[in-house]
Design a protein that fits this description.
single chain; alpha/beta; 9 strands
């Protein structure tokens, strides 16, 4: 929500995240995880085509809100382990591969602390002009 889309913890029996301000008090949850030990994952989806045709803001959606999430994770003083899951729907694999690489290079040019992505491309049934799905996971290094 306000801080991140998904927060993963190491153990399944964790009931949530520990509030650093109440750590060690009567209100501290024993089964909670410390936020700095969790993995914080932002998830963004951008499609090249919409039901109205080509998405005119496709490039700006990649460069603004998605990059903003990287900065948000990087600048948070509590988050140590983070990543961005970027899901692209494009006309073909060539465009998807190009756009993932271009997005990564643009982030590096801007000084954003992203690591080289792990990604997979696969064909999907053509939906309104999108026949490829690209899924990339970019680690966000702590600043």
């Amino acid at each position: 929500g306000n801080r991140c889309d998904v927060v993963l913890t190491e153990r399944a029996d964790i009931s949530g995240l520990r509030d650093p301000e109440i750590r060690g008090t009567l209100f501290d949850q024993l089964s909670a995880a410390d936020p700095q030990d969790a993995y914080w994952l932002e998830i963004k989806t951008v499609a090249q085509h919409t039901s109205d045709g080509p998405f005119r803001r496709y490039t700006s959606e990649l460069l603004s809100p998605v990059a903003h999430d990287v900065k948000k994770l990087w600048s948070d003083g509590v988050i140590r382990h983070a990543g961005l899951l970027l899901i692209l729907f494009t006309a073909d694999e060539k465009i998807a591969a190009h756009d993932l690489t271009a997005w990564y290079r643009k982030c590096l040019e801007r000084g954003y602390p992203v690591a080289s992505p792990e990604h997979r491309l696969f064909n999907i049934t053509d939906r309104i002009g999108n026949s490829c799905c690209a899924v990339g996971v970019f680690a966000v290094r702590d600043g």
